[in-house]
Automatic annotation (TrEMBL):
Listed name of the protein: Mannosyltransferase
Gene Ontology MF, one: glycosyltransferase activity
Pfam families xref list: Glyco_trans_1_4
Protein's organism: Bradyrhizobium betae
SUPFAM superfamilies the UniProt entry points to: UDP-Glycosyltransferase/glycogen phosphorylase (SSF53756)
Keywords: Glycosyltransferase, Transferase
Transmembrane regions: none
Length: 402
């Protein structure tokens, strides 16, 4: 049986943060899987910068951008009657034709890509990170200007048409089966893992001090690495700091990430609460600096509304930094975080204050290591399941070639 030729799509820009780092992890382990299983992986990205990053890991990827015709296909695909014309005329998008020319057998999307709508002939694997447009539809980034409807089309079609659906939590499998009628046996649960940059980042006093010095930081700050979206809930964190200051407790906060429309509101809140001297916003930082920034923090504080899982807690656990996290995501955190109500600034202020209790930092460090190991084991199980299901898929596709 000839090797399976798998196209792996790395479609998120590096500026997306965790939305880039997790797919990068996927690309690296898929390369290893292909080498061990006598299959082939070809990596594609629409971003030249991503290709340069992949070269650092010894991966030669191919640039594959959207054409105007691809966008027309996408627009028409959102209009369901186009499916009939596509069937009648056997139409293929330029995107799919390029993959067919490269001899691709299966397309693996490492995020919930709209490009799966462009595939008429090739089977695909889809990754679904969350269902937050259903969980919290009040946020504009998942509701406004047709975004909710667009996601419904993407999630609905992807979860029932994909040969395999990769999820990061069992709760998400349950949601997809209940909401869209996904066949449970097609789901493979592979939890998030710390960024490869964190894994490769060893503690180095001088190097860490240089990173902190570059950003004019002193160790001991609260750290929140997140893009500036409304659902990231920065405002509640700022309100909690203001409440602590009323109690005579001054905590420093470091925010990093790219602006997704909420930065202006955050700046106004910082001014409103009088926190200018306590908050440092250092913008989007290079991935290689993240390890030092986590190690320099007294805690990761993550009041996001979107889950059920997130990448930063895993990265904090990997370097021994305590985690303060919403109680809504206790299934991910277990006993390895101080939990709080993400709708209540006072609850968050109390959680930050609890970090000062005797022995709590050591307890959280040990619990974090233990929790991270549990995720490592679950990831290994998920990847083994993926390998088995890919062998079945490879066999079935070989039948179509005979």
């Amino acid at each position: 049986m000839r090797p399976l030729r798998l196209a792996v799509m790395l479609e998120q820009a590096v500026e997306v943060g965790g939305g880039f780092q997790q797919p990068l992890n996927d690309v690296l382990w898929l390369r290893d899987w292909a080498a061990k299983s006598n299959n082939e992986v070809l990596v594609y990205s629409p971003y030249a910068k991503s290709l340069e990053i992949l070269k650092q890991f010894g991966i030669e990827a191919r640039l594959l951008k959207f054409s105007v015709v691809d966008y027309i296909f996408l627009f028409l695909k959102y209009c369901r009657p186009f499916d009939l014309a596509q069937i009648a005329w056997r139409l293929k998008s330029p995107f799919e034709r390029a993959l067919v020319r490269d001899g691709i057998d299966v397309v693996h999307f490492t995020s919930t890509s709209k490009r799966h709508l462009l595939l008429y002939q090739l089977p695909f694997i889809i990754t679904i990170f969350d269902g937050c447009h259903r969980d919290a539809p009040e946020f504009p980034e998942v509701r406004a200007f047709g975004e909710f409807e667009r996601r419904e089309i993407l999630f609905g079609l992807a979860s029932v048409k994909a040969a395999l659906v990769i999820v990061n939590a069992e709760e998400l499998t349950e949601d997809l089966c209940r909401r869209y009628g996904m066949e449970r046996e097609r789901a493979v649960c592979i939890p998030f893992s710390p960024s490869t940059y964190i894994d490769q980042s060893a503690a180095d006093g001088a190097a860490d001090a240089a990173v902190l010095g570059k950003h004019r930081l002193e160790p001991g700050y609260l750290f929140y690495p997140a893009q500036f979206w409304p659902h990231k809930n920065h405002i509640t964190l700022l309100a909690a700091l203001a409440l602590l200051r009323e109690r005579g407790i001054v905590e420093r906060l470091v925010l990093c990430g790219s602006d997704r429309g909420s930065r202006e509101n955050i700046d106004r809140a910082i001014t409103h609460y009088g926190l200018t001297e306590q908050v440092s916003i250092i913008g989007f930082v290079d991935s290689s600096e993240l390890g030092a920034l986590y190690r320099g923090a007294s805690a990761l504080v993550m009041p996001t509304y979107f889950g059920p899982t997130n990448l930063p807690p895993l990265e904090a656990w990997a370097v021994g930094t305590p985690v303060i996290y919403p109680e809504a995501f206790k299934v991910q955190a277990g006993d390895a975080a101080i939990l709080f109500d993400y709708d209540d600034p006072r609850s968050l202020a109390d959680a930050i204050l609890a970090l000062r209790a005797d022995g709590i930092r050591d307890r959280l460090r040990i619990a974090g290591q233990r929790r991270l190991q549990q995720f490592v084991e679950a990831t290994a199980v998920g990847r083994e399941q993926f390998a088995r299901m890919m062998e079945r898929l490879k066999h079935r596709l070989s039948l179509a070639r005979h």
